[in-house]
């Protein structure tokens, strides 16, 4: 079989910014604190230990414990919640939206990466404890991004209205989604397991946050995962000084703007607003805007003087919600965290925040790109072998893959570079002659050169097309295999839901992920099931 991994840099699915981060290019080094190596965690531990307030540990542990009331919790998770009180305990964190039934596959990869790194650190630094944390994005409002999942190319969608933080959204109407999903599942023990899992999560809990906690706990609770909902009054109290600073001084905007200038050669992921906070209630999530010496809540009649706004903050900190710029700071203030594990897009916007963290006096975490995986059936792997394809081949864009394979199949070269070079040499001599005559002859020579080179390029394309017709059957089989592995020419992990694979492989799917994923290795894993 071909090699079962490919480097992120060579996969062709990561932006230049992420490739440069992975390669530790000099221009990006001022934008992060420590690169994710096992050795670098030693200094990160010491720095976080010296800066994280002991009082926060008690609040954090007690709050998480209260959120788990009524949830059947494994001994491993109970122990980890209790460990949060110890000053030798640190967290490894990933965050994700409350996607319906986990959404795309990479939800699993994020959490497995987080758990596996926690275990690896415990082995390397046995005198400390490391708790894997899933930070639920309960305060988000992008309902259209999370209200569906794909199952066997079919979109299973929840239709309802959403206005406030999605975590508070009532789960009413999800029984009809279960009915539609159940029909697609068919019969069998694994189908029943998935059906019951969806039912228990979404029809037996009142809001989306509780439903998602139940689901993630069922999938990962035995591995010691701790699930956190930061949409909480006691936790927001710990963040009051930073919210106040944002309201009064808008530090985030100026500091992030400084950093985005350094990223001008890349596509900037997010742009800061003047105030990077929302005002939230159960059915409200709107920006806080400062105009004419007053704080206005966008799209409402609500407005506050400075004193009134600060009074609301002291009495009701839960009404203030950090946006994408402030949320990472909130996370690192709350948690004794060492490392954040995220996708390429997340790492990109974290790289905008280093100077803001420095100005806020908060330790910047180690940033680790989550594991990426291509799941392959044994049948697909055999096809790949018979078609003489490597994993590197199937990661190519399809047009490039087809051209490469035709070039290999063909009995002669399809590259006319040698002929083009010969033609250019002949016209170089003609041009030298032309310069000794009048301008009209020079123009005629150049026009003819352009015409013949263009004709040669067209012949090259026509030859390639002719060869493709000859090998059409082989190329069709290659295309079908790649389409199955990369649906819509996109990454499988961004399209498919775990249920599709669990239906066939049950717990073996999870076992393979925990066995194969190495968080600190910069490799796109290929797992043959």
UniProtKB/TrEMBL annotation:
<protein>
    <recommendedName>
        <fullName>Putative cysteine ligase BshC</fullName>
        <ecNumber>6.-.-.-</ecNumber>
    </recommendedName>
</protein>
<dbReference type="Pfam" id="PF10079">
    <property type="entry name" value="Rossmann-like_BshC"/>
</dbReference>
<keyword id="KW-0175">Coiled coil</keyword>
<dbReference type="Pfam" id="PF24850">
    <property type="entry name" value="CC_BshC"/>
</dbReference>
<keyword id="KW-0436">Ligase</keyword>
<feature type="domain" description="Bacillithiol biosynthesis BshC N-terminal Rossmann-like">
    <location>
        <begin position="1"/>
        <end position="371"/>
    </location>
</feature>
<dbReference type="InterPro" id="IPR055399">
    <property type="entry name" value="CC_BshC"/>
</dbReference>
<dbReference type="InterPro" id="IPR055398">
    <property type="entry name" value="Rossmann-like_BshC"/>
</dbReference>
<dbReference type="InterPro" id="IPR011199">
    <property type="entry name" value="Bacillithiol_biosynth_BshC"/>
</dbReference>
<feature type="domain" description="Bacillithiol biosynthesis BshC C-terminal coiled-coil">
    <location>
        <begin position="373"/>
        <end position="528"/>
    </location>
</feature>
<comment type="similarity">
    <text>Belongs to the BshC family.</text>
</comment>
<feature type="coiled-coil region">
    <location>
        <begin position="456"/>
        <end position="484"/>
    </location>
</feature>
């Amino acid at each position: 079989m071909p090699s079962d991994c490919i480097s992120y840099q060579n996969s062709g699915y990561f932006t230049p910014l992420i490739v440069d981060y992975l390669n530790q290019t000099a221009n990006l080094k001022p934008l992060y604190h420590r690169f994710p190596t096992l050795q670098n965690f030693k200094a990160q531990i010491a720095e976080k230990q010296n800066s994280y307030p002991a009082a926060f540990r008690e609040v954090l542990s007690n709050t998480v414990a209260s959120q788990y009331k009524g949830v059947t919790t494994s001994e491993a998770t109970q122990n980890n919640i209790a460990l949060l009180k110890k000053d030798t305990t640190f967290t490894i964190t990933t965050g994700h939206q409350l996607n319906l039934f986990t959404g795309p596959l990479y939800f699993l990869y994020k959490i497995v990466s987080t758990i596996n790194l926690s275990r690896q650190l415990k082995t390397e630094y046995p005198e400390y404890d490391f708790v894997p944390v899933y930070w639920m994005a309960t305060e988000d409002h992008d309902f259209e991004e999370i209200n569906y999942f794909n199952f066997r190319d079919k979109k299973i969608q929840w239709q309802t209205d959403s206005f406030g933080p999605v975590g508070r959204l009532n789960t009413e109407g999800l029984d009809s989604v279960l009915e539609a999903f159940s029909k697609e599942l068919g019969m069998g023990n694994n189908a029943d397991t998935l059906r019951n899992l969806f039912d228990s999560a979404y029809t037996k809990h009142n809001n989306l946050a509780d439903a998602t906690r139940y689901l993630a706990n069922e999938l990962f609770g035995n591995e010691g995962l701790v699930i956190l909902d930061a949409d909480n009054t006691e936790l927001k109290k710990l963040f009051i000084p930073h919210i106040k600073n944002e309201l009064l001084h808008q530090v985030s905007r100026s500091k992030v703007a400084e950093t985005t200038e350094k990223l001008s050669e890349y596509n900037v992921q997010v742009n800061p607003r003047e105030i990077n906070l929302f005002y939230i209630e159960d059915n409200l999530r709107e920006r806080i805007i400062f105009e004419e010496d007053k704080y206005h809540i966008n799209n409402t009649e609500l407005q506050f003087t400075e004193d009134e706004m600060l009074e609301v903050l002291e009495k009701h900190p839960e009404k203030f919600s950090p946006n994408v710029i402030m949320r990472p700071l909130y996370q690192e203030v709350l948690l004794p965290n060492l490392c954040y594990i995220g996708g390429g897009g997340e790492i990109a916007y974290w790289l905008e925040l280093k100077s803001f963290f420095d100005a806020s006096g908060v330790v910047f975490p180690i940033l680790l790109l989550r594991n990426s995986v291509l799941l392959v059936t044994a049948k697909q792997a055999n096809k790949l072998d018979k078609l003489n394809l490597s994993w590197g081949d199937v990661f190519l864009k399809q047009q490039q893959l087809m051209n490469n394979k035709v070039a290999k199949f063909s009995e002669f070269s399809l590259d006319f570079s040698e002929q083009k070079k010969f033609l250019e040499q002949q016209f170089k001599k003609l041009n030298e002659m032309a310069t000794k005559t009048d301008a009209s002859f020079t123009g005629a020579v150049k026009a003819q050169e352009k015409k013949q080179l263009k004709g040669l390029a067209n012949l090259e394309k026509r030859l390639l097309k002719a060869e493709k017709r000859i090998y059409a059957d082989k190329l069709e089989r290659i295309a079908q295999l790649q389409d199955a592995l990369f649906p819509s020419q996109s990454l499988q992990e961004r399209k498919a839901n775990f249920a599709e694979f669990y239906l066939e492989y049950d717990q073996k799917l999870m076992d393979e992920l925990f066995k194969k994923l190495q968080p600190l290795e910069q490799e796109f894993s290929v797992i043959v099931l």
